Amino acid sequence: MTPYDATFLQGSGPQRSGLHAPAPLIDGFGRTVTYLRVSVTDRCDLRCVYCMAEHMTFLPKKDLLTLEELDRVASAFITLGVRKLRLTGGEPLVRKGIMNLIGGLSRHLASGALDELTLTTNGTRLEAFAAPLAAAGVRRINVSMDTRRPDLFRKLTRGGDLAAVMAGLKAARAEGMAVKINAVALASDNARELPELIAWAHGEGMDITLIETMPLGEIEADRTDQYLSLRQVRTELESFWTLEDLPLSTGGPARYVRVAETGGRLGFITPLSHNFCESCNRVRLTCTGVLHTCLGQEDERDLRAVLRAGASDADLVAAIRRAVDAKPQGHDFQIARSASPAVARHMSTTGG
Ligand code: SAM
Ligand code: SF4
Asked: What is the pLDDT of residue 18?
């Protein structure tokens, strides 16, 4: 099978998912899994200080799932009731052939099996990709950007060019995509700029979500120095803005408010809190085919081994069901001055 078949894009191809309605993916705690995040590569053109080491050793290409394997696993999840698929990385838009994968997966949008196919990107290549992404049915996109100051952006990303991201944002919006900005809150770097960043995003008609740093992956900096509590940020914002809680829940660690003064939506992602685990609807697939059913636990299931052992579709589905059945009840993050992070894998491998 090639992962890309233009007839699917036109909605006239066979609608493979949706033919049968197998039992949904329900874990041992009664939670239904409807959201899959897939890291399509561990590589990236940036080196954000909280995400990667300056000199990263990337995985050998043979260890990565091929585009066909990625399509196969994602499609199996969709058959099992996943309605939302987010591609991430590393930087998804640096993966060679990424539009073949996305174009192929868009058949599930055309068939109605999938509600949303979306991406989290650093935006550096978005200017070139916006049009093909929109043509493949990508309607919303998350773009990570922690500052609007070119010098600070260069420092935080170790060399990134903010102008490229701004051009990417413009192109995505010109294609009619809804853009959400993701910004990691960093005590020593962008803390003071956050109100201005929020006001700018809202002024441009974009949602923005602040993210607390997570103890994932070995990096040089002492992460406790970068940690900024979003509770503290919220308190400060409330000293000059009115934040109205929104009932919106995505089944993940984000909580949303409306800023009355700007009219825009603001999210807070506090992954260190436990208060979202009971409604968690998501699982993550790494670029090497390891399925993690909880971001904060070392649980894993190697689906690449299953695939490369010549698994039938039934074998693959059975492996996925076994993994989801064992999804942990909750996670166990701690920011401590310990030598190693709570979870040793990098965000760029797991997919943020
Ligand atoms: N390269 C893409 C990007 O930057 O949007 C997608 C992958 S990136 C790993 C996904 C998200 O994870 C980004 O918003 C990034 O800021 C966030 N992230 C990376 N490392 C993190 C950490 N240690 N703590 C919290 N968020 C992190
Ligand atoms: Fe790359 Fe995204 Fe990690 Fe930054 S956060 S280094 S852009 S994967």
From this structure: 43
